[in-house]
Amino acid sequence: MNTVLQFPGLLPAMLAVTNAGHRTNRFSNVVTGIIVVLLAGGALAVMLTVIIMNRLRCKIPVTAKVARLAETTATKPKTGEAVTLYAPVYAYEYNGNFYEGKVTSYSPKPSHNTGETVQIKIDPENPEHYIESAAVSKGTLLIMLFLAGIAAMGMLLIFGT
Protein backbone atom coordinates (compact mmCIF):
# COMPACT_ATOMS: atom_id res chain seq x y z
CA MET A 1 0.00 0.00 0.00
CA ASN A 2 1.35 3.37 -1.01
CA THR A 3 1.16 6.24 1.35
CA VAL A 4 0.71 9.64 -0.20
CA LEU A 5 1.61 12.57 1.96
CA GLN A 6 -0.28 15.65 1.10
CA PHE A 7 0.89 19.14 1.95
CA PRO A 8 -1.70 21.35 0.37
CA GLY A 9 0.26 24.60 0.64
CA LEU A 10 3.77 23.29 -0.12
CA LEU A 11 3.64 22.90 -3.92
CA PRO A 12 2.13 26.32 -4.62
CA ALA A 13 4.66 27.86 -2.21
CA MET A 14 7.56 26.11 -4.00
CA LEU A 15 6.26 27.24 -7.39
CA ALA A 16 5.89 30.80 -6.14
CA VAL A 17 9.52 30.82 -4.93
CA THR A 18 10.72 29.33 -8.24
CA ASN A 19 8.74 31.81 -10.33
CA ALA A 20 9.83 34.74 -8.19
CA GLY A 21 13.45 33.67 -8.60
CA HIS A 22 12.92 33.36 -12.35
CA ARG A 23 11.39 36.84 -12.51
CA THR A 24 14.28 38.30 -10.52
CA ASN A 25 16.83 36.51 -12.72
CA ARG A 26 15.00 37.63 -15.86
CA PHE A 27 14.89 41.20 -14.62
CA SER A 28 18.62 41.26 -13.86
CA ASN A 29 19.37 39.75 -17.30
CA VAL A 30 17.28 42.44 -18.99
CA VAL A 31 18.93 45.23 -16.99
CA THR A 32 22.41 43.81 -17.66
CA GLY A 33 21.55 43.41 -21.35
CA ILE A 34 20.33 46.99 -21.61
CA ILE A 35 23.53 48.28 -19.95
CA VAL A 36 25.72 46.17 -22.27
CA VAL A 37 23.81 47.28 -25.38
CA LEU A 38 23.99 50.94 -24.34
CA LEU A 39 27.73 50.83 -23.60
CA ALA A 40 28.83 48.76 -26.60
CA GLY A 41 26.29 50.35 -28.94
CA GLY A 42 27.25 53.82 -27.73
CA ALA A 43 30.96 53.18 -28.32
CA LEU A 44 30.17 51.77 -31.75
CA ALA A 45 27.99 54.79 -32.57
CA VAL A 46 30.77 57.19 -31.54
CA MET A 47 33.31 55.35 -33.71
CA LEU A 48 30.98 55.36 -36.71
CA THR A 49 30.19 59.05 -36.20
CA VAL A 50 33.90 59.96 -36.14
CA ILE A 51 34.56 57.91 -39.28
CA ILE A 52 31.60 59.42 -41.13
CA MET A 53 32.44 62.98 -40.04
CA ASN A 54 36.03 62.54 -41.22
CA ARG A 55 34.77 61.29 -44.58
CA LEU A 56 32.39 64.25 -44.91
CA ARG A 57 34.99 66.86 -43.93
CA CYS A 58 37.94 65.47 -45.88
CA LYS A 59 36.67 65.69 -49.43
CA ILE A 60 39.42 67.44 -51.45
CA PRO A 61 41.77 64.90 -53.11
CA VAL A 62 45.46 65.81 -52.93
CA THR A 63 48.57 63.95 -54.01
CA ALA A 64 50.97 63.58 -51.10
CA LYS A 65 54.50 62.24 -50.96
CA VAL A 66 55.83 60.03 -48.18
CA ALA A 67 58.54 62.32 -46.79
CA ARG A 68 59.83 59.79 -44.25
CA LEU A 69 58.74 57.01 -41.94
CA ALA A 70 58.16 57.87 -38.30
CA GLU A 71 59.32 55.09 -35.98
CA THR A 72 58.42 54.06 -32.48
CA THR A 73 59.19 51.03 -30.38
CA ALA A 74 56.63 48.86 -28.62
CA THR A 75 56.95 45.76 -26.47
CA LYS A 76 55.03 42.58 -27.25
CA PRO A 77 52.91 41.76 -24.18
CA LYS A 78 53.45 37.99 -24.21
CA THR A 79 57.15 37.80 -25.06
CA GLY A 80 58.46 41.18 -23.91
CA GLU A 81 60.23 41.48 -27.26
CA ALA A 82 60.80 45.01 -28.59
CA VAL A 83 59.21 45.70 -31.99
CA THR A 84 59.72 48.71 -34.25
CA LEU A 85 56.49 50.24 -35.61
CA TYR A 86 56.22 52.62 -38.57
CA ALA A 87 53.88 55.38 -39.71
CA PRO A 88 54.30 57.32 -42.96
CA VAL A 89 54.80 61.08 -42.72
CA TYR A 90 53.09 62.79 -45.64
CA ALA A 91 54.14 66.05 -47.27
CA TYR A 92 51.60 67.81 -49.46
CA GLU A 93 50.67 71.20 -50.84
CA TYR A 94 47.25 72.85 -50.84
CA ASN A 95 46.44 76.39 -51.99
CA GLY A 96 50.13 77.32 -52.10
CA ASN A 97 50.81 76.18 -48.51
CA PHE A 98 52.91 73.14 -47.60
CA TYR A 99 51.81 70.70 -44.93
CA GLU A 100 53.33 67.66 -43.27
CA GLY A 101 51.52 65.13 -41.15
CA LYS A 102 51.73 61.52 -40.11
CA VAL A 103 49.17 58.80 -39.84
CA THR A 104 48.16 58.24 -36.24
CA SER A 105 48.32 54.46 -36.45
CA TYR A 106 51.63 52.65 -36.50
CA SER A 107 52.18 49.18 -37.94
CA PRO A 108 55.06 46.66 -37.87
CA LYS A 109 55.37 46.83 -41.65
CA PRO A 110 55.47 50.23 -43.37
CA SER A 111 52.32 50.77 -45.44
CA HIS A 112 54.29 52.96 -47.88
CA ASN A 113 57.93 53.58 -48.78
CA THR A 114 59.74 56.91 -48.53
CA GLY A 115 59.31 58.90 -51.74
CA GLU A 116 56.12 57.09 -52.74
CA THR A 117 53.13 59.20 -53.78
CA VAL A 118 49.68 58.51 -52.35
CA GLN A 119 46.24 60.03 -52.67
CA ILE A 120 44.84 61.62 -49.53
CA LYS A 121 41.74 63.70 -48.93
CA ILE A 122 41.97 66.88 -46.91
CA ASP A 123 39.53 69.07 -45.04
CA PRO A 124 39.44 72.34 -47.04
CA GLU A 125 38.63 74.31 -43.87
CA ASN A 126 41.52 72.70 -41.97
CA PRO A 127 44.07 71.41 -44.53
CA GLU A 128 46.24 69.88 -41.78
CA HIS A 129 43.44 67.38 -41.19
CA TYR A 130 43.31 64.57 -43.73
CA ILE A 131 42.39 60.94 -44.25
CA GLU A 132 44.66 58.51 -46.01
CA SER A 133 42.12 56.41 -47.87
CA ALA A 134 38.46 55.52 -48.01
CA ALA A 135 39.06 52.21 -46.28
CA VAL A 136 38.79 51.70 -42.53
CA SER A 137 41.93 50.28 -40.89
CA LYS A 138 41.94 46.63 -39.85
CA GLY A 139 42.32 47.56 -36.19
CA THR A 140 39.33 49.88 -36.29
CA LEU A 141 37.28 47.27 -38.10
CA LEU A 142 38.19 44.61 -35.52
CA ILE A 143 37.21 46.90 -32.66
CA MET A 144 33.91 47.70 -34.36
CA LEU A 145 33.17 44.00 -34.92
CA PHE A 146 34.04 43.24 -31.29
CA LEU A 147 31.68 45.98 -30.06
CA ALA A 148 28.93 44.74 -32.38
CA GLY A 149 29.40 41.24 -30.94
CA ILE A 150 29.19 42.55 -27.39
CA ALA A 151 26.02 44.49 -28.29
CA ALA A 152 24.56 41.30 -29.83
CA MET A 153 25.25 39.42 -26.59
CA GLY A 154 23.45 42.18 -24.73
CA MET A 155 20.47 41.73 -27.06
CA LEU A 156 20.51 38.00 -26.30
CA LEU A 157 20.38 38.80 -22.59
CA ILE A 158 17.37 41.03 -23.16
CA PHE A 159 15.37 38.88 -25.58
CA GLY A 160 16.87 35.40 -25.20
CA THR A 161 15.89 34.48 -21.65
Structural notes for this entry:
- The chain is α+β, with helices and mostly antiparallel strands and 161 residues long.
- The chain has two domains: 10-54 and 143-159; 62-123.
- It is 43% helix and 30% strand.
- The chain is built from two helices and five strands.
- The protein has a five-stranded antiparallel beta sheet with strand order 3-2-1-4-5, with helices on one face.
The portion of residues assigned to helices is 40-55%
**Total number of β-strand segments?**
5
| Biggest β-sheet description | 5 strands, antiparallel
> What number of domains?
2
Strand order of the largest sheet: 3-2-1-4-5
Distance between the termini: 44 Å
What's the rounded overall pLDDT mean?
81
Q: How much beta, percentage-wise?
A: 25-35%
| SS field, number of helical segments | 2
Unreliable residue runs: 9-20
Radius of gyration: 28 Å
Q: H/E series, N to C? A: HEEEEEH
Q: What overall geometry do the principal axes of the alpha carbons give?
A: flat
What structural class do the secondary elements suggest? alpha+beta
How would you summarize the topology of this molecule?
Blueprint: H1 10-57, E1 60-75, E2 82-94, E3 97-102, E4 117-123, E5 126-131, H2 138-159
Antiparallel strand pairs: 1-2, 1-4, 2-3, 4-5
Helix pairs in contact: 1-2
Describe, in short, the structure shown.
The chain folds into 2 domains: 10-54 and 143-159; 62-123.
Features of the shown structure:
5-stranded antiparallel beta sheet, 43% helix, 30% strand, flat
